[in-house]
Amino acid sequence: xxxxxxxxxxxxxxxxxxxxxxxxxxxxxTRYSPYLYIAPFFLLFAVFGVYPLAYTFWVSLHDWDLLxxxxxxxxxxxxxxxxxxxxxxxxxVNTLGIFVISTVPQLLAALWLAxxxxxxxxxxxxxxxxxxxxxxxxxxxxxxxxxxxxxxxxGMVNWLLDxxxxxxxxxxxxxxxxxxxxxxxxxxxxxxxxALILLAAMQAIPRDLYEAAAIDGASRxxxxxxxxxxxxxxxxxxxxxxxxxxxxxxFTEPRMFHSGTNPIRGGPLRESQTLTMYMFENAFAPHYxxxxxxxxxxxxxxxxxxVAAVNVLVLRRLGGSAGSGKGGTxxxxxxxxxxxxxxxxx
Length: 346
Hints:
Oligomer: single chain
Helix content: over 70%
Largest sheet: none
Order of helices and strands: HHHHHHHHHHHHHHH
Distance between the termini: 65 Å
Number of helices: 15
Radius of gyration: 29 Å
Shape: flat
Number of strands: 0
């Protein structure tokens, strides 16, 4: 019979307890510490985001006069009045019209500009910084300059139209024309911002994909639509959502464009009054009906969520069809021609 001796010293009970406690703390730290790290953001969001949103909804259920002391509960009366208000629907059409005219060209121009900046240009750092100049410019200054450019009598745009034999356009009193002028202002200001976001995503695309497509004989345009655009789909969705939120909340540009008597109406006949301007008009001067203005704010919130969801669904559908159609050529080239070339070299 053999006796096996253990040379290790006996472990004290206190040492065992400390090890168990340390292991338990380590497991708790691994499991719960990430939530503690992100908790400050959600706490701030709850205080400055969720609470104002919930309070606005509560106010929208009351007849809330800012100059009064009593605020009686009226339920959904503000919403029913709002849906029957022709001025609300007029502002909604203005908002959607300016949004479509400004957002679609803005994203297309940003994609094209990002593709140019992604090439080997001389002084490309300076060019990349230059596209942000409109974004850091004061909105009031931009509105004043564009107001002069689109002036009826001495505006440069009408002067250029006159050179080609076209009649002058009433940019501030014509509804569609005012949409175009405000959209030009928005596009000039935000195209460079979106272009830099798309450029950062383009630089993360592996160069091997372009080399494989070039070996297959794909031109620059084919590489752009078959390689770049499908891989940029998440970034394009992000830019679309950000542009949707900004486009449907447009306030400063149309208000400054109609700087004159009662600019909050967006022109004498509300030619370019957006939903945010209509909300401000009702919630503050001259009506001071905070409950009605809160109802406008909540319907605007619902509209932004709906349009953003539709944009995401459409872009995902288009991205899926593009990936299965155009992306297949590049994929086949990588596994076929490129792979064969590397084997031949060996």
